């Protein structure tokens, strides 16, 4: 059977968009026939990349609505800013295209609801491309959980600890969206990297849901300290007051009694870490500075996780390693793009759907409100309007994020 | 000059009291002349221990008020339950004795206030014996902070991760106080081990204070799971519903903008850990499953903490290691007992005073209230009634917990 194909538009050719576009061009069935960026130099660069990789000339646009008006395009990918991508997603679905976009939190609950309602009305895919859901470690832990190796789940922790002082401090030069967000906002600005995999493990929107959220923020002194260390007082942000606290921690309480604790930690010295912790009645897993560790009930001591990972590796990753792992972020960028492309080309449900997307993104705006109220609990919306109670696991295709999907375990 | 001495009473001869009594008998200047436990067998055992170690006969009591009525006794140590020790402390001060007691949280804010008011009125010492303040690692980190190596402090984490399922599950047999507390309560039941050192680093009650607290608890399934794994349905607690959540996390927000996150984690599989994390503008320290790690600004990677500890060791510990470290909990039990004895014998202020004691203990009852209100912020009392604003660091004696005290840095 011939590989089914479709025409895609690609919107947002920033540094990240650049590498995602290259990766996307290698996904089976993907034809990128139009690119777009609001900056003309970036839009032109996008067309050059497509030419370079495929040998074909494509149109470039600086207004995404012009791209969306093209009838030959079936679906789009957006790698734009945290503030623009849900607008673009809603426009895309209204124009009859599937859409997937880069990670980032929401600014308002209503933008989440709009994505949900538009996806429900149009039947189009609206998928946040949370690559960490497709990480080798995360998929293996997911499989181990589904096979019962952790027992009853009780508690998760995840984090985005990433020293971004330089990226934010040089944000004007590199046109990076983080700068304005760290200046204006105070909350869990980047929740999805560890929350995505955690939500999948907990069956959020499929038998479970988040009920409440609390967030607390430390003072924010790291960015100013960086400016003082790196620059002279005439530097443009030398005296800027950044609203974002250096350490923001967020609690989520689930309908089934589990807790999730997230940490956002980007403006102090911190080697990269997602601080992943899983606790169930039969085991505890913990990310660690050197090697990840695990301890099963009865063992009393940590042991290295690597041999356990190898013994329990998710079948998708086994197959992927045999075929040859693509580069972006250790290979997970390629998998999340494949998962979207497969669903979009064949008009099938995506493994990360609009309810997941809205739920994960909503953490940001809820967190800002809770921080402002001293960590007061805020209600978490049920974007499924009660469907979560009876929705079963998603089991279609090899990118289904289920260890027990038909593709592998018939 | 002759070593000054004093007569002490020792109350509470549980398993823990047993080892603390032996340790206390080796502290310079300490004469234990009376022992007490509400169980007669334990009280007799206390007298036997004193006889064994010192060769002297001492009175034993089953009512602490009888011991407190003895005029020859200058001060007491109490190793009783979380619910009884503040009552005993208040009785002791009213009877004109200094008092120090084992760690544990408070059940009510008023018990904390009573300790504060009684200490203020009587001028007696009321000290929680938080041994972790005297741990080698903790004292060295404290010294590094005071010397500016972490820059401006922003965020701390600490925990009590200790798999106590067996101790709690067998609580009736071993007459252990944890059982009833885990059955009846839900909150941060054991906050002080990491909070004590953190509060000292942050200058709490001396230029800083805790303003608000939020706590969130997971469901509590670990103890029931343990009973199902270990026992048959006729076991006395097989069907008990334990109120305590398996993982309770607590946020403290400080007057100077710092945050503290505490984890209580005692009823699931978990190798022992206090999960100590310190973040400032110049460095991050993190406890880790294998070796503790640190990263200074500009380094970008974790490195092992051990060589840094050795290069920056607190002078009290250098001296202590030269003289020979005593056994209990790696030596810190001995140091906290010495710190108390030195203050009590000489009628001097103690390095952990009643304000510290009340503040650290109050976390427990505040946490229970916040958990019950879904993590709502609760106001943290100022037990100093505003004195914290101008109180300077405590700098007396070699157990002063200050790296810059006169004893060492003239």
What this model shows, in words?
Chain A is an alpha/beta fold and 410 residues long. Chain A folds into two domains: 6-131, Rossmann fold (3-Layer(aba) Sandwich); 132-408, 2-Layer Sandwich (Dihydrodipicolinate Reductase, domain 2). Chain A contains 14 helices and 15 strands. Chain A has helices spanning 15-24, 40-54, 64-68, 85-94, 109-122, 136-146, 165-169, 178-184, 192-202, 222-230, 306-312, 315-323, 332-346, 354-372; strands at 6-11, 30-36, 59-61, 75-78, 98-101, 126-128, 153-161, 210-217, 247-254, 259-265, 277-280, 283-286, 293-296, 303-304, 378-379.
Report the strand count of chain A.
Answer: 15
The separation of the N and C termini of chain A measures 22 Å
**Beta-strand residue fraction of chain A:** 15-25%
Helical region count of chain A?
A: 14
Mean pLDDT of chain A: 94
Biggest chain contact: A-B, 56 and 56 residues
Specify the CATH architecture of the largest domain in chain A: 2-Layer Sandwich
Biggest pleated sheet of chain A: 9 strands, mixed
- Order of adjacent strands in the largest pleated sheet of chain A: 14-13-12-11-7-10-9-8-15
State the CATH class of the largest domain in chain A.
Alpha Beta
Unreliable segments of 5+ consecutive residues of chain A: none
Number of separate domains of chain A? 2
Q: What fold name goes in the CATH topology slot of the largest domain in chain A? A: Dihydrodipicolinate Reductase, domain 2
Q: Write down the secondary-structure element order of chain A.
A: EHEHEHEHEHEHEHHHEHEEEEEEHHHHE
Supply the helix-strand structural class of chain A. Answer: alpha/beta
Overall geometry of chain A comes to globular
């Amino acid at each position: 059977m011939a590989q089914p194909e479709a025409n895609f538009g690609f919107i947002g050719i920033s540094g990240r968009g650049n590498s995602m576009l290259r990766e996307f061009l290698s996904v089976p069935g993907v034809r990128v026939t139009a690119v777009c960026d609001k900056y003309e130099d970036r839009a032109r660069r996008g067309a050059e990349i497509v030419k370079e990789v495929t040998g074909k000339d494509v149109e470039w646009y600086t207004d995404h609505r012009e791209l969306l008006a093209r009838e030959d395009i079936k679906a789009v990918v957006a790698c734009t800013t945290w503030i623009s991508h849900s607008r673009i997603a809603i426009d895309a679905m209204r124009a009859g295209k599937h859409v997937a976009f880069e990670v980032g939190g929401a600014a308002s609950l209503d933008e989440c609801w709009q994505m949900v309602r538009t996806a429900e009305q149009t039947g189009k895919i609206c998928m946040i491309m949370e690559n960490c859901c497709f990480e080798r470690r995360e998929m293996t832990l997911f499989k181990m959980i589904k096979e019962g190796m952790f027992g009853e789940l009780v508690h998760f922790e995840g984090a985005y600890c990433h020293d971004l002082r330089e990226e934010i401090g040089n944000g004007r030069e590199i046109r990076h969206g983080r700068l304005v967000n760290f200046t204006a906002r105070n909350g869990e600005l980047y929740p999805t990297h560890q929350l995505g995999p955690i939500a999948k493990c907990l069956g959020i929107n499929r038998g479970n849901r988040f009920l409440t959220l609390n967030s607390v923020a430390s003072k924010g002194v790291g960015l100013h300290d960086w400016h003082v260390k790196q620059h002279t007082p005439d530097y443009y942000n030398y005296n800027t007051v950044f609203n974002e606290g250096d350490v923001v921690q967020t609690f989520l309480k689930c309908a089934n009694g589990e807790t999730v604790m997230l940490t956002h930690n980007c403006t102090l010295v911190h080697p990269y870490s997602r601080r992943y912790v899983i606790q169930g009645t039969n085991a505890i897993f913990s990310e660690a500075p050197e090697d990840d560790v695990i301890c099963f009930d009865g063992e009393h001591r940590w042991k290295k996780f690597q041999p356990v990972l190898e013994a329990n590796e998710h079948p998708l990753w086994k197959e992927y390693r045999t075929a040859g792992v693509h580069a972006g972020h250790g290979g997970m960028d390629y998998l999340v793009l494949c998962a979207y492309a497969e669903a979009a080309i064949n008009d099938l449900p995506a493994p990360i759907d609009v309810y997941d997307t809205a739920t994960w993104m909503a953490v940001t705006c809820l967190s800002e409100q809770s921080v402002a109220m001293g960590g007061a609990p805020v209600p978490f919306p049920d974007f499924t309007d009660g469907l979560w109670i009876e929705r079963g696991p998603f089991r279609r295709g090899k990118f289904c994020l289920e260890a027990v999907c038909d593709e592998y375990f018939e």
